[in-house]
Every structure is written in structure tokens, then in C-alpha cells.
From TrEMBL:
Protein name: SGNH/GDSL hydrolase family protein
UniProt entry keywords in alphabetical sequence: Hydrolase
Organism in which the protein naturally occurs: Arthrobacter mobilis
Molecular functions per Gene Ontology: hydrolase activity
InterPro entries, A to Z: GDSL_Rv0518-like, SGNH_hydro, SGNH_hydro_sf
Gene3D superfamilies, A to Z: SGNH hydrolase (3.40.50.1110)
The SGNH hydrolase-type esterase domain, residue ranges: 9-182
Source superkingdom: Bacteria
UniProt-listed Pfam families: Lipase_GDSL_2 (PF13472)
Amino acid sequence: MTFTERFVALGDSFTEGVGDEDPTLPNGVRGWADRVAEQLMLADTGWGYANLAVRGKKIGQVLGEQLEAALALQPTLVTLYAGGNDILRPKVDIDELMAGYDDGVTRLAASGATVVLFTGFDTSKSAVFGRTRGRTAIYNEWVREIADKHGTLLVDYWRLREFQDWRYWAEDRLHMSAAGHTLMAKRVLEVLQADDAITLPELPALETLSRRAAFAADARWARQHLVPWVGRRLRRVSSGDALTAKYPQLTGLHPAR
């Protein structure tokens, strides 16, 4: 099939869709990018969609493994988010990291495609990941400067304060839930100035936990999610090592629900 418009998504777990689980789909996840593609196709059946994102990838891997493949698909719309996995490493040179990021955005912008970039999320309320907040702030300033330089669109995740509501997050407290991915899809479509038929899900009632119950929940989270995550870092392995892109070639999607 020949597509007149081509949306290609690059990145890591954020764009792959981790946290928005769906065992019927490739890699077992859906995510905001799929949801954006579905809405674009509802408005215009000429859209094709490829998602090259793979969980666990750092900026160098995203650009090294996904950039050429994305350009070969001759995209008219590209989204890029990468850097979160670099920021969480024990040591990182943000300035050096963003020089490579800038080179990648230069090539994407030169293709003539509409490019959408993302800042990182403000982790100020996270007891664990909040320690990297300063790194993320520096990263975000680089992203904003690069977006201005190349005239790209920007989804300023840091400033989307509704995501400070942890009901939009998965049990691992690192990835958005289905509700969070749905909300993010709506915010991306707003930046694209595209209409959508997305209905945001109703959030569960906020729980007020006793100190003892909160401690037990934190201990359970650490055992089930934090310890395995740290273990992978120590072994220098990634949850995405055995995975490939969900949609490496352009395809058509229809809203799942």
C-alpha cells in the first residue's frame, strides 16, 4: 500500500508503549504513539505508521539503530524521545550527549518531515528517581534550545502538571499506565493541532494509605520493580535486549477501543 502521509516514532520504552499493556499487540504494548497514529488514520486513511522504539535504549542506540531506518521510510511526521535511560545512569555527560542528539535532529529536520520532540518528566515527587531531577532540567533546556534551532514542535512533558497525579502511572512507577498513555496521545495531538476522538478514562478514587500500608506498598514495589531494575543495570543488560521494533515497516492501524 502507498501512504501519502507517514508517521515514524523513534525512542525507548516511553514511545514503545511500556505500561500500556495489550498482549494482542507486538511486544505486548500499545502506547501513546499507537493511539496518535490511530487518530490520524481516523481523519485520513492515507496515513501509514511505523514505531521503531525499543525499551531500554539510550540516545546513542536510538540514533544509531533507528535514525537511518526512519529516514528510509521517508516520513512526513517524526517523533523523537530519548535520553531518559542515559539520565538514570550513574554517570553521564549531558552536554556531550545532547551534541549527538542535535546531530540527529538536524538530519530529521533536513528530511522535510514535521519533527516533534519531548522534554523529560519532572520527577520531583519520586523518592528514587527525583535524585536525577537536576540532570533532567539540564537535558530539557538542551531540548528546548534544539527545538528552537530547528523549528520543531515540542511536547513539554516537564510542564504537563497533570502527570504529577500518580494514577496516570503504572505499578513500576517509571512508565505511564494506559490512562497516562491515553492522556499523552491527546496532548501530542493538541501540539499537532489535530482533531481527536479520544475519551480520557475515568481515574480510580485516590487512596489514603496509613503509614504502615504505604511502607508495605513501597517495600512491595522495591522488591518487584526496583531491585530487578537495579540488577539489570549492574549486569549491563536491558529489558529490550531480546526485542525488536513493534512496527518496523509502515502499517495501518485502527482504534482498538
